[in-house]
Amino acid sequence: MIDSPIIPAPIPLSEMQKQSKIGIASFVIGIVSMLIFCLAIVLAFGYGITIGSTNPSIQSLQSSPTILALGLLLFLSPILGLVGVVLGFVAVFQKNHKRLLAVLGLVFNFLIILAFCVLLVFGLVGQTGAFGL
User: Fold this and answer.
1) Which residue in 49, 64, 85, 89 is deepest, having the highest Cβ count within 10 Å?
2) What average pLDDT score do residues 104-118 get?
3) Could you write out the DSSP letters of every residue in the chain?
């Protein structure tokens, strides 16, 4: 007698696990937050260098409305990151859903919060003049 392999029956589409909508939201917020953070840094440095080379007065750089708007945009990214972390945790603990995008959303949002904290520490250390910076 020949043993025939047992082929499992296909799972109907209605019973397949889908990605959590909250996990998808966390993932999208993480991507958007990263894009906002990177864009704000690149534009702020580029605009700051342009102002610094044409007008070396530090007062013009600090009171520039463009730099202030980019700074606010930079502070928006960790706030979005916190929202994404909360949504990611909620999505990870949901039952009967895939967790890939929720975990990726958590990772991206944690990374953006970490990057913001590192940038903030560098700014504070540079402002105080510690470590010869």
Assistant:
1) 85
2) 95
3) -PPPPPPPPPPPGGGS-EE-HHHHHHHHHHHHHHHHHHHHHHHHHHHHHHHHHH---HHHHHT-HHHHHHHHHHHHHHHHHHHHHHHHHHHHT-SSEE-HHHHHHHHHHHHHHHHHHHHHHHHHHHHHTGGG-
- The predicted-structure confidence for 28-69, as pLDDT tens digits, reads as follows 999 999 999 999 888 877 876 676 667 655 555 566 777 788
- Quote the CA–CA distance of 80 and 72 in Å, as a whole number: 13
- Does the model's pTM come out above 0.85? no
Residue 77 has pLDDT above 80, yes or no: yes
- Chain centroid to CA 58: how far? 31
Query: pLDDT at position 59, please?
Result: 58
98 beta partners: 19
Alpha carbon distance 48, 36 (integer Å) = 18
Nearest to 45 by CA among 114, 122, 128: 122
